[in-house]
Amino acid sequence: MYARSFAGTVYGIDGMLVAVETDIANGLPQFDLVGLGGSAVKEARDRVRAALRNGGFDYPMQRITVNLAPADLRKEGSGFDLAIAIGILQASKQIPPRPEAVLVLGELALDGTLRPVSGVLPILLEARKQGFTHVILPEENAEEARLVDICVLPAANLAAAIGYWTGGLEPPAAESRPAPQKRAVHSQANHSDFGDVCGQTFVKRGLEVAAAGFHNVLLVGPPGSGKTMLATCLPSIMPDMTTDESYDVTKIYSIAGQLTRNSGLIRERPFRSPHHTITAAALIGGGGQIPRPGECSLAHGGILFLDELPEFSRHVLEVLRQPLEAGVVTIGRSRQVFTFPARFLLVSSMNPCPCGFYGSRDQRECTCTPQQIQKYRSKLSGPLLDRIDLHLEVPRVPVSLLQERPRAETSEEIRRRVEAARAIQCERYRHRPGAPFNSAMSGEELRRYASLDREGRKLLQLAFETLGLSARAYNRIVKVARTIADLAGSEQIEAAHVAEAIRYRALDRGVLG
User: Contact, 65 vs 23, CB < 8 A?
Assistant: First the structure.
């Protein structure tokens, strides 16, 4: 007898539906699983066999063949267990087939318990697009599944899943009510507030510009000057994500298996801070035949903070070039090329030298040799620094400020200005909804929206010739000046805006030696 059920898996960043075809024929007892499945898929035969027996069902002692179609695409994960079990029960006539389009997801424990799987959101988005109306899946995945307009049938075990299948696909009364769409709204209170930072007015202003235009930042200063604290304050002034951005981020976290049982739509911008021992594959994504998103994609729409930047491997840092420029990560495999979204705001920090006190204005003297300083800074290539819009010098805070603690602007006050500037950009780039901010301006948009006045052009030409800037650095200064003008509510980029943008290129100006 032949039966068919439907499951799903993740292929790159998108969901892919899989037809689970089951055939039971006379012959010696045997279980063949075909269709280019990975190790976890092939091991499903043992989990399904034990789950059916321990769940009170008969396991047919015949020749069982299960095919996962399309057979030419690789499948990974353990989410096919429940669909295989239902296919066997249908083919052995223990349960009837269903006329509705029903998706079945879940990993089976040996006692028949259903365990959660990753990637539910992108799979259900694809299922809804293809006309599926119901999904049976583990209880732990129910909150995530309710983000999609589909009837969710959460099951604790195999018996409950079969009960839905044979009982008319009616959800429990408590589950039939529509769930609110704004779950998992994380508070900005988890982050530091700029009002708690003493001094550093210039750096705070630079971070305000970075948040308003989504510009990458490098903080350079001696140990204890507050670089890490300033970076952790930045999320508190970032504008809220749009609904589309929230769905994109939630999809990525679903694929990575980082959504908890009660997770809903992620509303807070991500803040990722990997250790400097991270590998290139962990940073940009990778893995087996079907790669998984890395830290760059997990930071999509938010902040990627790399503390002590020169401590990272140079090879690891160089792989950041593509996502910083294009906002995506492209990973090639023998059968397919995968593209992951990775448009994040890079915030990084470093000391001016290995000991940290080169050029320090206090009593501490640098003990590093010129060769040591050169080797330390050579980790950061010119092309990488070109892609970082703001180089901010972070000096040590005077003890008088630490003792007096004068009132400083709070994050809420700064955030209002950032949101106003971002609203201007959203209107300006309404034809480009995926990246409505100044740092993503194309060459045509630079000509259209970033015209300088006469004094501004003269100033920028002088800076270009004096500092030896590259064409990319030149364009990035113009983009930063456009953001500064937006914060000031000015349509025209003036000389004062250009001058401020040039001040944010500390490494180009050689102020750190």
Answer: yes
**Total residue count of the chain as it appears in this document:** 513
Tokens of 452: 């300088």
Q: How far apart are CA 192 and CA 414, in angstroms?
A: 13
Whole-angstrom Cα distance, residue 187 to residue 234?
14
Residue 186 has a pLDDT of 38
Q: CA 442, 444, 447: angle at the middle one, nearest 5?
A: 110
Give me the residues paired with residue 4 across strands.
21
Give which of 412, 356, 401, 345 is closest to 197, Cα–Cα. Answer: 401
* Cα–Cα dist 333/355, whole Å: 42
């999809």: which residue's tokens? Answer: 251
Rounded to whole angstroms, how far apart are CA atoms 340 and 214? Answer: 19
Token pair of 98 as six digits: 């269903």
- Reply yes or no on whether the pLDDT at 174 is more than 70: no
pTM, full prediction: 0.89
Residue 486 exposed, middle or buried by CB count within 10 Å (0-12, 13-18, 19+): buried
DSSP per-residue letters across 252-292: HHHHTT---TT-----SPPEE---TT--HHHHHEE-SSS-E
Distance from C-alpha of 506 to C-alpha of 513, rounded to nearest angstrom? 10
CA atoms within 13 A on the CB side of 269: 24
Query: What is the Cα–Cα distance from 464 to 467, expressed in whole angstroms?
Result: 6
Q: Token digits for 142? A: 């129910």
- CA–CA distance, 508 with 388 (Å, rounded to integer): 11
Give the model confidence (pLDDT) of 423-455 as tens digits: 999 999 998 877 889 999 998 999 999 989 899
Identify the CA nearest to 215 among candidates 387, 40, 432: 387
Residue 377 CB neighbours (<10 A): 18
Distance CA 166, CA 153 (A): 13
Give DSSP secondary structure letters for 346-393: EEEEE-SSSSS-TT-SSS------HHHHHHHHTTS-HHHHHT--EEEE
Are 78 and 7 a contacting pair, CB within 8 Å? no
